[in-house]
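Budget justification aside, the reviewers requested a transparent look at the raw inputs and outputs of the sequence design task funded under Objective 1. We therefore reproduce one unedited record. The lines immediately below are the structure tokens for a 229-residue chain.
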């Protein structure tokens, strides 16, 4: 995969040289924001996410049929069913989970259908070594630190220096490698997060794209930014 990377310079620090995997482009310190088209792209038309509105119909049990909104953590709650994690699931998949929960609880041979009535597209995907990976709504002024906090924080053995943000800008795939410890120290700003971003914490194929430079991370004054081609 051919990659063009960007790194901001800092006086007294060694200049990073291009490699076969990364072509260094200087004077860039953060991922650029997406444009309107990137933000409105339909990235998950058939999956249920936080704050979506769904219609649940239980055949011959009208008192259990209802319209409801998925909560901000991606869960729903129903009588006789309890709480179910709906985030990232197709409507049919969630229907089968509800049927399984109802079976044996005074509902014989339950038949459940689900329709997604309205879908909230303003979400960020958080994956990898966080406590609760999944889809999360993008709020005003969301940053990387706040996004990770919304996923209940890093898991016990997470690597705070290996966080990749994937983003589409002007139709092109981009990635940035960030170090949360450096952000906490004030080495550079906590980057803004936008709808449709994907945040991957810890070891991943996306992070391994940067392996030629990860060993230099103590010397880096800014994130590594890359175009993925």
């Amino acid at each position: 995969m051919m990659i063009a990377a960007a790194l901001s310079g800092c006086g007294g620090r060694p200049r990073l040289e291009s490699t076969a995997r990364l072509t260094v482009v200087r004077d860039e310190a953060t991922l650029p924001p997406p444009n309107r088209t990137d933000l409105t792209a339909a990235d998950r038309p058939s999956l249920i996410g936080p704050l979506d509105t769904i219609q649940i119909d239980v055949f011959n049990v009208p008192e259990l049929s209802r319209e409801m909104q998925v909560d901000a953590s991606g869960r729903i709650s129903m009588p006789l069913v309890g709480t179910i994690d709906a985030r990232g699931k197709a409507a049919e998949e969630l229907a089968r989970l509800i049927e399984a929960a109802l079976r044996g609880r005074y509902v014989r041979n339950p038949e459940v259908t689900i329709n997604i009535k309205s879908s909230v597209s303003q979400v960020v995907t958080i994956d990898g070594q966080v406590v609760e990976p999944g889809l999360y709504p993008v709020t005003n002024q969301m940053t990387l630190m706040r996004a990770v906090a919304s996923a209940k924080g890093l898991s016990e053995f997470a690597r705070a220096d290996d966080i990749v943000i994937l983003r589409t800008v002007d139709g092109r795939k981009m990635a940035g490698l960030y170090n949360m410890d450096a952000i906490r120290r004030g080495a550079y700003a906590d980057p803004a997060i936008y709808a449709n971003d994907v945040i991957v914490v810890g070891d991943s194929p996306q992070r391994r794209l940067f392996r030629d430079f990860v060993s230099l991370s103590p010397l880096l004054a800014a994130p590594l930014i890359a175009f993925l081609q």
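The helical segments are 36-40, 91-102, 144-150, 180-185, 205-208, 211-214. Residues 1-12 have pLDDT under 50 and may be disordered. Computational costs for records of this kind are itemized in the attached budget.
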